[in-house]
Amino acid sequence: MKKSGGALKIVLGVLLVVTLLAGGVYAFVQQKAYNKPGNPANTESVAQGKPLYARFCASCHGKNLEGQPDWDIQKEDGSFPAPPHDTSGHTWHHNDAFLFEYTKSGGRAVNPPGFVSEMPQFSEIMTDSEVWAVLAYIKSTWPEHIRVKQANR
Ligand code: HEC
Fold first, then answer.
1. pLDDT tens figures, 25-68
2. I need a surface site. Which of 47, 125, 134, 148 has the fewest CB within 10 A?
3. CB-based burial of residue 53 (10 Å sphere; 0-12 exposed, 13-18 middle, 19+ buried)?
C-alpha cells in the first residue's frame, strides 16, 4: 500500500512538472508572437499606429484606408494614385518585409530605376518601430482570414 502510494506521488509530481514546463514554453512562444513587429493583435502597437496613420498616410491612402479614386489606373505623368490599404487593395498581397521596406524607403527606392512613384520615404520621419506600428494598425482593420493569408505571404 505504502509503496504504491509513493509511486503515485512520483507520477503525479512528474506530471505536474511537465505541465508547468509546457505551460511556460507555451506562454513564452505566445509572448514572442505577440511582440512580433507589425502584429495586428498587439493592442499597444495598434493604438500607437492609428494616429500615425492619420497623420502621415491618410492624406493619400484615405482616412478610411480607401485609397484614391481609380488607384489602379496610371496617370499621365507615369505615376499611380495611392492604393487602398483596406482589403480592396493589394497591400495584403505583400509580406511584412515588403510593406516595411516600402514604407520606410519609399516607392522610388523599392522599384526599378525610372519608376515614377509618389509614395514618400518615411525613414527620417518615423522610427522603425513606428513604421511597424502603422502596419499593425492597417492590418488590424482586416478580417481574420485576410490577416492569416497575409501572414503566410
Ligand atoms: C503623398 C502620398 C502618399 C503618402 C503620404 C503615403 N503614401 Fe503610400 N503610396 C502612395 C502611392 C502613390 C503608392 C503607389 C505605389 C507607388 O507609387 O510607389 C503608395 C504605395 C504604398 C505601399 C505599397 C503598395 C501596397 O500595395 O500597399 C505601402 C505599403 C504604402 N504606400 C504605405 C504607406 C504608409 C504606411 C504611409 C504612411 C506612413 C504612406 N504609404 C503614405 C502615396 C502615398
1. 999 999 999 999 999 999 999 999 999 999 999 999 999 999 99
2. 148
3. buried
pLDDT at 94 over 70: yes
Nearest-angstrom CA–CA distance, 75 and 1: 87
Of all protein residues, whose CA lies closest to atom 40 belonging to ligand 1?
57
Question: Which grid cell is 71?
Answer: 488607384
The residue whose CA is least distant from atom 21 of ligand 1 is: 119
- Phi-psi sector, 36: left (phi>0), alpha (psi -120 to 50), beta: beta
**Cell numbers standing for residue 96:** 511584412
For the four alpha carbons of 37, 43, 23 and 143, in that order, the dihedral sign comes to negative
User: Which residue's alpha carbon is at the smallest distance from atom 13 of ligand 1?
Assistant: 82
